Structure formats: C-alpha cells, structure tokens
Amino acid sequence: MTSGLAVESLTVRYGGLVAVDDVSLEAPTGRITGLIGPNGAGKTTLFNASNGLVRPASGRVRLDGRDITRLPLARRAQLGLGRSFQRIELFNSLSVRQNVELGREGVLAGSMPWRQLFSRRSEQRTVAAAADEALVVCGLETFADRPAGALSTGNRRLVELARILAGGFHMLLLDEPSSGLDDRESERFGAILTHVVREREIGILLVEHHMELVLSVCHYLYVLDFGKLLFEGTPQDAVRSEVVRAAYLGTAA
C-alpha cells in the first residue's frame, strides 16, 4: 500500500498496561476501513498513536509510505492526516462557518498558531473556499451563520465533519462520529462519508459502535479486543465469525 495509513506492529504501553499489543493494519485511500471492538479494546489509543498524541513503545506508523512515527502532531496534519474525537469539540459561541473555517486555518498555521492573526489574503480565500465546500457537502449552508451551540446534536456532529473536511486531509481518523445520533441521522451521516470517499478519493479509518452504520459503509474491518487484533476481513465475514460474535457482536439466540 502506497497511499493511506499503515500501522506496523504497533505497541503502546501506559506504565505496566499494554493498551495496544503488536497491532498491524492498513487503511488505504479510496475506501472506509472500520476499527471496532468493545470499550477498552485500544481503539482510541491506536488513533492517538497514529496522529501523534502518544508515542508508541514499538512499531511504526506510515502515511503514504512515509514513516511518521516520530513526527509531531501538526506535521502529520500538514501531510494530510486528520482526526476527530469522541466528544463534540466545537466553539459554541462561534458561528457554524467560523467553526468549519478552523479546520483549514489550523492546518495552515501548523505549529505557529499566531499565523492565524496575520494570514495572507490568498490564505483567507483558501480558507473561505474550503469552508464553503464543506458546508455544502454536509448540507449545512442554511446554518452557516448560526451559533454552533444552538444546533441539534445531529447537526453539531455534521459541523465537526465539515470542519475536518475543510482541512483538506486525504486520510481521516474518525472516532465514534455518530455518537448521540438516531438511526435516521446515522444513515444520513453514512451517506455523506460514502459520498466524500467516492468523490475525493480520501481514506477513512472509522471507530464506531453503531453496527448498522459500520456494516453499511465499511469496505474492510479490523476487530480489537484487549489491545490485540482479533479479526480482519470484510464486514460480511465479521458477522459470520464466531470469534467476533462472542467477543463483540453477541452470539445469536
């Protein structure tokens, strides 16, 4: 694999606790790859090691074939790796548009946040265009000037998605992005993800507990349990796997 994210024999320790234990996986561009497992399986820790929030004890993280294991978080973002978090992290007093613009502004500023105060006109146009496109993709044009804090949970989740799309990343790590959404909202969210991957040829590594969403949008699945890779294969194979059903999906009555 030359385009996308590759994790190679990754191990992450917190003191004596092994949170991720010798895990390897690939999330190429052009598809949605799922990462599922019970709470505490190590999914978020793997994300944190991938985007630079924690340093692994061993193993490598590659983006488009390049070793990024020791690169800082800001540099990984500039190379095209974007990340969302489980909790909704919006500036409630800012407008939806301003929140979305931060996705591209943060990438342009990188490790020098003061650049946002002295951005060039060309950068301002780039930020505005990226935000406009992301708002359209996520169906948020009519909410653009409203405070983000006034929106429903479903639309706030879409603002988060629009913000990361505005960043211009070609590889996204999405950590439980449908949390708090009902079935109809999750279906809409999944349709947007599928559209974006198809139109932009980006890659998504998706951590998600909403199994209907996972099974409907993911091309390939990895299952973690107690920090170890339990299974990899198609969603259809995962549903049929007795090991996966016993550990995570539940055994049919």
Describe what you observe in this structure.
There is one protein chain. The chain is of the alpha/beta class and 253 residues long. It folds into two domains: 164 residues, 3-Layer(aba) Sandwich (Rossmann fold), CATH 3.40.50; 78 residues, no CATH class. The chain is built from nine helices and ten strands. The protein has a six-stranded mixed β-sheet with strand order 6-7-8-3-9-10, sandwiched between helices. A four-stranded antiparallel β-sheet has the order 2-1-4-5, covered by helices on one side. Strand 4 and strand 5 form a beta hairpin. The protein is globular and about 50 Å long.
Q: What percent of residues are in strands?
A: 15-25%
Class derived from helix and strand content: alpha/beta
Widest sheet: strand order?
A: 6-7-8-3-9-10
Overall pLDDT: 91
Largest sheet: 6 strands, mixed
CATH class of the largest domain: Alpha Beta
**Number of E strands:** 10
Q: The CATH topology of the largest domain, please?
A: Rossmann fold
Tell me, briefly, the overall form.
Answer: globular
Helix content class:
25-40%
Just name the CATH architecture of the largest domain. 3-Layer(aba) Sandwich
| Individual helix count | 9
What are the key terms here?
9 helices; 10 strands; 2 domains; Rossmann fold; 24% strand; alpha/beta; 4-stranded antiparallel sheet; 6-stranded mixed sheet; 253 residues
